[in-house]
Design a protein that fits this description.
The chain has about 300 residues and is mostly helical. It is about 80% helix and about 0% strand. The longest helix has 29 residues.
């Protein structure tokens, strides 16, 4: 696997976060602006991106291919859930921090960073695998994610019916039925959805601007979370999938996707539902910075 291809993708992500950091200090972002932008992302641009990822492209995948990837995805998410249930008890911290540990271990950045990295490492054909692998993520992160972040007492079940949840169900429906709306629908959704990644990273950068810089890199709990998220999870997944005889390309893409840093949408969900947004922003930054080294390491050692 190419170290420099991966490094280039990670530097682009960090640059966008740095621009958000700068925008906060210039007074363009922060406070109520971040709150409103997170609502735009969660309710408009991200749902558009989720559906567009499935319905655009030259060909629709065969049902057998979709089901094969979903079987691997079941192992992927069950392993993450196991880590998310056990590790926060060992890491400790406040209830808000434990919510971040759970979310961070359950949801990696398999779309925002995972798509371009998978394509850079495995070629354009990898995007199909990455999109199908992300379908359960889209559904779970906007239903189970808020529950993990704020706990049962503060979570309302009516919050399950969100634009992102509806979009995830629609995307899965189109993939399984092989139905496709008119091409103009996909073009419109892609046009709107394409702003999701840079806009989300700008908001995360703005959230980080209000935190002491050294605080992010001095927390033992954050470093432990990073090791679990970036090294332990992909390592264990590799052993399991290889024992199951998973096809090499699918194995490689799945392991690399598991090696992604904490999902950026965690910060949007913290703003929306009242989670610990400072801790989430710290976890996002540290795992993203560390993944510049760990993703090429995982790709070169295991694949």
């Amino acid at each position: 696997m190419s170290f420099f291809d991966t490094l280039r993708e990670m530097l682009v992500i960090l640059f966008a976060m740095a621009m958000g950091y700068l925008a906060h200090h210039l007074g363009y972002l922060g406070g109520e602006t971040d709150q409103k932008l997170s609502k735009v992302i969660l309710n408009i641009t991200m749902p558009a991106m989720i559906v567009a990822a499935v319905i655009t492209g030259d060909t629709l995948p065969e049902l057998s291919e979709v089901l094969a990837v979903l079987k691997v995805a079941a192992v992927f998410y069950l392993l993450e859930m196991l880590f998310a249930l056990i590790a926060p008890r060992l890491l400790g911290g406040t209830p808000g921090q434990k919510g971040v540990w759970r979310f961070g271990l359950m949801f990696g950045n398999i779309a925002f960073i995972g798509y371009p990295v998978a394509t850079a490492l495995f070629g354009p054909g990898a995007l199909f695998y990455a999109v199908i692998l992300a379908m359960p993520f889209n559904l779970l992160s906007y239903t189970l994610g808020p529950l993990m972040l704020v706990g049962v007492k503060r979570f309302q079940w009516k919050q399950l019916l969100t634009p992102c949840t509806v979009a995830a169900v629609l995307g899965l429906f189109f993939a399984l039925t092989r139905l496709r709306p008119p091409a103009i629908v996909g073009e419109c959704l892609s046009f709107v959805g394409n702003v999701t990644v840079p806009l989300s990273l700008l908001v995360v950068g703005s959230l980080l601007a209000g935190l002491p810089a050294g605080q992010v890199f001095k927390s033992p709990r954050l470093w432990c979370l990073s090791v679990l998220r970036l090294l332990a999870l992909p390592g264990v997944l590799f052993v399991i999938l290889r024992a199951l005889g998973t096809e090499p390309m699918l194995l490689g893409i799945t392991v690399v996707e598991m090696a992604m840093p904490v999902a950026v949408n965690g910060s949007m969900l913290c703003l929306e539902y009242g989670g610990n947004k400072e801790c989430m922003a710290q976890a996002t930054l540290l795992t993203t910075v560390a993944s510049i080294v760990t993703i090429p390491l995982i790709a070169s050692v295991l694949l």
